[in-house]
Write a structure and sequence with these properties.
With 95 residues, the protein is mostly beta strands. It contains 1 helix and 6 strands; from the N terminus they run βββαβββ. A hairpin with a 6-residue loop joins strand 1 (2-11) and strand 2. The model has no long low-confidence stretch (mean pLDDT 93).
Length: 95
């Protein structure tokens, strides 16, 4: 299991909101800084059986593939703790 701890956001095509451009996860191989990869790479690894989480209120919440609630962009990362327009991954510390 890997924890996603940071994000780099980029404007959507219509500039009305932001999408995850890169997400950073903690790796045992490089524990001092997050490994930054595109969301599509996280989804590829999840298809192969790896699990990713974010911490919400001190608890790990599993990450899954979905679509942007604002524009429908797919593939997109989401969590079961997302509500309304709040995507928990997009609220992680930004680099």
């Amino acid at each position: 299991m890997y924890e996603i701890v940071s994000i780099k956001l980029a404007p959507s095509d219509d500039q009305s909101h932001f999408h995850a451009d890169l997400v950073g996860y903690v790796s045992k191989h490089i524990p001092e800084e997050p490994v930054m990869v595109p969301p599509e790479r996280i989804i590829q690894r999840m298809v192969l059986g790896e699990k990713f989480v974010v911490t919400v209120d001190g608890d790990p919440v599993e990450v899954s593939a979905g679509k942007c609630l604002k524009c429908g962009l797919e593939p997109y990362l989401k969590t079961s703790a997302d509500t309304g327009d709040v995507n928990r991954i997009e609220q992680l510390p930004s680099i």
